[in-house]
Design brief:
With about 650 residues, this protein is an alpha+beta fold. The chain is built from ten helices and 37 strands.
């Protein structure tokens, strides 16, 4: 039977925008509480909230969703959040949970198995105007919660201080702010939560300051614990040019750290007295990553002295490291990418993993047997997997013969093909961050396009993580240059080899990727159109308007403040709007504190009267990263409509995006 032939981009697909939106997000922030493993999980159809899910380990119990709507387990510390909960088994039995609720950012205590089901009770006070309180990366210690406290002291996003604090579990601080004990001063701008040694006598954490970002340089702090106080606080590792991504204690009380002092994030044993560090597994691989949020975890110590690690180049796999011999054994299974969250219970390690054929799910590795299995958030196939794309991880050459890593997703459909003489349209996806990377895993947002006959290529341009510090440093003071050049080099290579139609290339990106997409339109005529999503568009405006964490990010990405005016004129899409001639759609959340709507509005003002077709779609109630199902549906359909109109594709099954000059 002959396979039907239809033009690229016009193929029918069962992966509609509603389906892609409904399965958006992944499990995060795993933790073991007594005989159970817990994690947070997204609910796109419930206004994008995150809930807590639990499952008993030993008796194969079912997954149980705790905290019905509107509870939303999510911190806003540094706006990106961080580990939002902690738990422990009570002496009387049953778990005690402490979590941050997104709506009011208070900490709550919750005993789900307590008789009578009293529900969560507040532990911290209501925030006052100009003095907002936020909490993250908690750990339970005796009758207190030790965590990061972020306190806003004025109206500007940079009017903020952060300290380690102790919150009483008895609820006394719910009405009285003075009941919160501050464990450290605020001499450091940023901090992770404390990691308490097994004997309870020491605490370790990471700290850093403007203008560094945590992948530039952090300090590993160590303090003694006397009574309820931290004493003799000192730096034992790290500094301005050494990024320590995680600190961890072994069961025996050895201090471990993940540092890039050798050019790659590797695991080290740290001598607290001398500050000496021994590399436990020297490899040109990453055993850590960018610390965008406090509480990320790439390593976890096991009771027998072994250490679970996530490691690799580009993508991470789960392995078990013998810190004495350096032997490393990887878990067997189909998973090719693991998120930086690990939990340990006895011989079992829990993580969140995915593959090109399965979305992110909670995976258990029993280190005693080597057996790995899915135990939570099991990925299901909502459609025939024959519609999933088949990624190709490739390395391209850019300017000066520098290597560029990318994942190519050709158009793919089990029952339709295009004519032999037609080349497919391709969209270059520039990831956010920009200090981040994308692994080749199943993403229904990508499948939404590839199953319709539109190819996608995700580019881990210079500056991406996952390939060592030197690759990461390529973007230093070159944002808007290297990222733009690398994306263009990959697009041109695909066109030159006959993989992509050179007349039907597009670029899209969100956040920092939105900057790259917009800057690309201003720098080259390579692309026929662009999807620009909650972007950075103006360097000066971004530095002045964004949240505290990234308020000095531009120093490393573009250059010092004294050169910003010139750099903004030379690179910012707003300043170079007169060079933009290709159509675009601009998608923006109106409650975005990271890339405020003012960025988008300035570009729209600069484009006024330019006779360039474009559309602006704004979403009330959305912040930095769309979370609501209805928002994602509208955004995906608007993006597809743009491509259909520009590429000459007939699609009557989606609303037509109105493009205005």
């Amino acid at each position: 039977m002959a396979v039907p032939t239809r033009p690229y981009g016009s193929w029918p697909s069962p992966i509609d925008a509603a389906l892609a939106a409904s399965l958006d997000g992944r499990p995060e922030y795993l933790g073991a509480v007594g005989p159970e493993v817990w994690w947070t999980e997204p609910r796109p159809r419930e206004a994008g909230r995150r809930t807590l899910v639990r499952r008993r380990i030993a008796d194969e119990g079912p997954e149980i969703t705790e905290l019905p709507a509107p509870w939303n387990v999510r911190s806003r510390v540094t706006e990106y959040g961080g580990l939002p909960w902690a738990g422990a088994e009570r002496e009387s039995g049953g778990p005690l949970l402490v979590f941050a609720h997104f709506a009011d950012q208070r900490l709550y205590a919750y005993e789900p198995d307590a008789p009578g089901g009293p529900g969560p009770r507040p532990l911290t006070p209501v925030s006052t105007v100009g003095g907002g309180l936020r909490w993250a990366d908690p750990v339970l210690r005796g009758g207190e919660v030790w965590c990061v406290l972020e306190e806003f002291t004025g109206p500007a996003p940079t009017d903020v201080r952060r300290v380690l604090a102790a919150v009483p579990l008895d609820g006394s601080a719910a009405e009285d702010r003075s009941a919160v004990r501050e464990l450290t001063d605020d001499r450091h701008r940023f901090s992770t939560g404390p990691r308490i040694s097994p004997d309870g006598l020491q605490a370790a954490w990471l700290a850093w300051d403007h203008p560094r970002m945590p992948w530039d340089g952090t300090e590993l702090k160590l303090a003694g614990i006397e009574g309820d106080a931290l004493v003799r606080v000192r730096t034992v590792l790290g500094g301005p040019e050494e990024a320590v991504a995680q600190v961890e204690w072994t069961v025996g009380g050895t201090l471990l750290a993940v540092s890039d002092r050798g050019g790659w994030w590797n695991p080290y044993r740290v001598d607290p007295e001398s500050g000496g560090a021994v590399n436990l597994c020297p490899r040109e691989e990453e055993f850590g990553g960018p610390l965008w949020k406090p509480g990320l975890r790439w390593t976890a110590a096991l009771p027998d002295g072994l250490v679970a690690v996530l490691h690799g180049q580009g993508s991470s796999v789960l392995g078990v490291l013998d810190p004495d011999s350096g032997d490393l054994v990887d878990a067997a299974g189909p998973w090719t990418a693991w998120q930086p969250t690990l939990a340990v219970s006895g011989t079992r390690v829990y993580g969140v993993a995915a593959s090109p054929r399965s979305a992110y799910e909670v995976v258990e590795l029993d280190t005693a047997t080597g057996h790995a299995r899915v135990v939570g958030a099991r990925a299901t196939d909502p459609v025939d997997p024959a519609y999933y794309p088949e990624p190709q991880s490739r390395t391209f050459l850019g300017p000066d013969n520098r290597e560029i890593h990318a994942h190519v997703y050709p158009p793919h459909h089990p029952a339709v093909r295009a004519a032999a003489d037609e080349l497919p349209p391709y969209v270059v996806w520039a990831h956010g961050g920009p200090t981040d990377h994308v692994p080749p895993v199943l993403d229904l947002h990508i499948a939404y396009f590839t199953s319709r006959g539109i190819g996608v290529v995700e580019v881990n341009y210079g500056g991406s993580t996952g390939y060592g510090r030197a690759y990461r440093e390529r973007l230093r003071e070159q944002w808007g240059v290297v990222d733009v050049e690398d994306c263009a080099a990959v697009a041109r290579a695909l066109a030159a080899e006959g993989t992509a139609d050179p007349e039907r290339l597009a670029i899209r990106g969100a956040s920092a990727g939105g900057w790259t997409a917009a800057a690309s339109l201003a720098a080259t005529d390579l692309y026929a159109c662009a999807a620009i999503i909650y972007p950075v568009l103006d360097l000066i405006g971004f530095a002045e308007e964004t949240h505290d964490l990234e308020s000095r990010y531009i120093d490393g990405l573009a250059g010092p403040p004294q050169t910003l005016a010139v750099l903004c004129r030379d690179r910012s899409p707003v300043a170079r709007a007169d060079r933009i001639t290709a159509p675009f759609v601009l998608l923006q959340g109106l409650d975005d504190p990271v890339c405020p709507p003012a960025q988008a509005e300035r570009l729209l003002t600069a484009m006024r009267g330019r006779s360039v077709p474009h559309a602006y779609v704004a979403f009330a109630g959305e912040g930095h990263g769309f979370r609501r199902a209805e928002t994602m549906v509208r955004a995906l359909e608007a993006e597809l409509s743009l491509y259909a109109q520009v590429f000459g594709i007939d699609r009557a099954d989606i609303p037509r995006l109105a493009l205005h000059d």
